[in-house]
Hints:
By secondary structure, the chain is α/β, with parallel strands linked by helices.
Amino acid sequence: MVPEQAAPTDVGLSVVIPVYNEVESLRPLYDQLAPVLATLPFASEVVFVDDGSTDGSFAVVEALHQADPRIRGVRFRRNYRKAAALSAGFREARGRIVITMDADLQDDPQEIPHLLAALEPDHDLISGWKRRRHDPLSKTLPSKVWNRVTSAVAGIRLHDFNCGLKAYRREVTQDVLPYLYGELYRYLPAMAHWLGYRVGEVVVLHHPRRYGYSKFGARRLLSGFLDLLSITFVMRFMTRPMHVFGALGVVAAGIGSVIALYIASLRLRFGDIQNRHPLLMLAVLLLVVGVQFISTGLIGDMLASANQQGGHVPPVERRVGAPRD
C-alpha cells in the first residue's frame, strides 16, 4: 500500500470530491469514508469542491470540518462544471496520492485500499472499472461505444475512462492541469498515458443512485467524441500543429497542382481545356485550401509557442480547512 514511508505529520492521501447539489448524500458519504481512512497507515484528508451548489451542500461541508479537521472544502461562486472542480481539488490536495470520487454515493469508499494497492509497484494512475453498472441503458450503451472509440484513439485498453473513482500519484495530477478544462476530465487516463505515465485499471463496485439525479446523459455522446478529437490534437500536436495542418495542406496543394498541370497540358496541346472547367475549378479550390491549411499550421505554431491554454481555476468564494502550502 502506498505511501508507506509517510511521516505522521505528512498527508499521504488526499480524497478529492467534486460536489454539485449533493446535500443529502454528503453525510452518508462521510460516514462511509471515515472508517476506511482510519484504517490507512498514513495521514489523510478529504477535499470537497463545491461547484456552486444551490442546495446548502457547503454548509454540510463546514459542519463536517468542525467535527473532523481532515475535512477541507472550497466553494465556487457559481457552477463551473466538473473539470474546474477537479482542477481546484488537484491544486488544493496535499497528499502524495490523490483519489477522486463522486459525491452521489455510487462510488464505494471501500475500494480505496484496492486502488492504493494497484498503484504499487507498476502504475501511476489506476482507473476504476464499473463492470456492473446500476445505470439505465440510455447511459450504459453510449458509454460502451464511447469507451471503445476512446481506447482505440488513446492507444490504451480501458473499459471505463469516465469512472469517477481513480487513484493518481501526485505528479500526474499536476502535469495534467494545463489540459483540464471544458469537459476534458473524461480523458484523464488518456492524458496521463500520452504524458508517459503508466495507467492501469481495476474493477470497482458501483451502487445505485440514492439521492438526486444524474447530471449526465446520452446526449453528451456527440460532445464526448468532439472533445476526444480536441484533446487528441492538443496533447499530440499542440507543439507541432504544422505536422497536421501542413501535411493536409501539402496533400491538397499537391493534388491541385497535378490537376492544374493536366489542364495546362490540354491547353498547350489543343488550344483549349477540352471542356474541363469543373476540373479546373477543383484544381483552384484545392490549391487555395492547401495554402489555407499551411497558413493555419504556421499560425498554430506561433500560438503553441505561447502555450497559454488551461490552468485556470475559478474564483473561490469560501474555504474551510487550511489552504494548501
